[in-house]
UniProtKB/TrEMBL annotation:
Its cofactor is Zn(2+). InterPro entries: Ald_DH/histidinol_DH, Histidinol_DH_CS, Histidinol_DH_monofunct, Hstdl_DH. SUPFAM superfamilies: ALDH-like. The lineage of its organism: Bacteria, Pseudomonadati, Aquificota, Aquificia, Aquificales. Zn(2+) binds at Q255, H258, D358, H417. Substrate binds at S233, Q255, H258, H325, D358, E412, H417. This is Histidinol dehydrogenase. Pathway: Amino-acid biosynthesis; L-histidine biosynthesis; L-histidine from 5-phospho-alpha-D-ribose 1-diphosphate: step 9/9. Belongs to the histidinol dehydrogenase family. It comes from Persephonella hydrogeniphila. CDD domains: Histidinol_dh. Residues 14-41 form a coiled coil.
Amino acid sequence: MKTVDLRGKNYLKSRELELLIKRSEMEVEQFEESVKNILKDVKEKGDEAIIQYTEKFDGVRLKPEEFLVPFEELEKAYESLDEDTRFALEVAFERVKKFHEAQIEKSFFVEEEGMILGQKVIPMERAGLYVPGGKAAYPSTVVMNAAPAIVAGVKELIICSPNPNRYTLATAYICGIGEVYRIGGAQAIGAMAYGTKTIKKVDKIVGPGNIFVALAKKNVYGYVDIDSIAGPSEILVIADDTANPEWVAADLLSQAEHDELAASILITTSEKLAKEVKNILYNRYLVNFSREDIAKKSLENYGHIFIVDNIETAIDISNYIAPEHLEIIIKDPFSALEKIKHAGAIFLGEYSTEPLGDYVLGPNHVLPTGRAARFSSPLGVYDFIKRSSVIYVNQEGFKRVEKYARKIAEAEGLEAHKLGVEVRLKNI
């Protein structure tokens, strides 16, 4: 983990900061052609391609009738969990669902003289959730992707997950999703986007995955909508000398254990805190740590501690990085909130640890990565709805605005646009 002293320096000229910013520029060329070929096969061959690629990548030979996990298996998986785990997942689902209910948009209508203008809010009809599978267990991914869709009013939800484990299946049961397919990778994205004889196409695909899944989502955009093309995870902690170094170190490690490309960043005004956090990480927390290899590589390549002159500079650097997760552990964390411009999720205060947000607090943990927080938002109810404009004009309203429309049509040289207005003038 690199320590960089930026006191008295221009952070924009920091080489270490620039390398950190560019870390998400993944080399995708080597995978792009392969993904396009998979998608082309799925589009043309349907179930046959799904069978072929599932056997090739997951080592499982499936028949089309075996794609769908029987509902009895979902129920069995739910019943197999110990009572505390079941209850924890149910609490998480209810909390996340309740939070997202505050995001519900309503249709509206505005009446003018001779006009009624409005907007109709319509939920998408069918959405596909991608959940990584195999040895990994991601029940929280099911909760975070399903809850806003359910609150939005999406009637049909499906899950695609390669070799889904019991936690994924049990959480699908908790969320009321009965359509779970045991397929993954780019072929699953293709199946959801184009549809096959066995799998009905969806309107939107959400959820994380590896480089093949990310590229597949990118390539099917337009056939369907997608949430985002997620990059490696990241956390940035702004801390002063009041912060507990053990807590800060634990939060940095919680991101480093995700994968080797994850970034764990501390920006602090305290040189003492910087040294203590680094010492605790390497000499205590990483000793006999179950995911030591992954975490060490992450910290060595993308772990940074920046020492700065003041909290204002720390906030400026944070806004420049636009992190996925931002923790503010200073004496008065709310004093910094107004100055934060770019962050996926903002955690204020020493007890607001990022892992709580990952699982049970309520706000969504599907967040923009790779500086995308500059222009995008967490997954929410708004991702699963469409808006249609509603327009009614009577003769009185027509008379109020027709001449302006004709003038603009003339300016644009669109004769038929002008004609559409003029033919109605004959009735007035």
